[in-house]
Amino acid sequence: MRLCQAWALYSPLVTADAVELAQFPELSERFAVRAVPTVILRAGGATATLAGALPEELLLAALLKAAGPELP
Amino acid sequence: MEGARLMLPARRAMLAEALAEMEDPVAVWLEADEGVAAAQDLAQLLTIQPLLALARRAPEANAFLPPDRYPLYRLGPIGDRSQARAGFIGFPEGFMLDAFCDIAVALSRGDRLASALARDTLRHLVRPVDVKVLTSPG
Q: Is B126–A67 a contact, with Cβ atoms under 8 angstroms apart?
């Protein structure tokens, strides 16, 4: 969780909030949560969902895909 | 005060010491309805200079969660709430205080919280991205 918050503290383009899922059960249904943590990336009108504890490399790759430069 | 009861004196002293050593102190911005008593209590507790806490609504959070159900706590520089981008929603106060304390202590020691790989990747971002980590401390 604090991995993503460290990104937010470093980059002005990133906002990161940890959400206590037990307090918001509707989010489990809305995002079809099957594992925690589930990371949701929202950028430019698109949403990506990553389930389970993933290595930082994979999370950063998804972040770059969501908010990085368009590939030709 | 709920927050005061949850934060051990030694922990509070560690936090105050860390904040005093920071060149660029962070603030905890509380964004909550005025009716959220716990948020008001925590705001009072966290008024430890140079840590600053304010209570106010979080209009930008409406799209994700209803604003009347939770206080949102975000870390950022004092004086500019728009730059407070690292937050917690719905966690117990003791958990959040521990998390903020850990981050403040790390920053006061000059630690770079983001890894080298993360810093390199983040430099390539070209548009804003909102990250929500759905989790449970239990």
A: yes
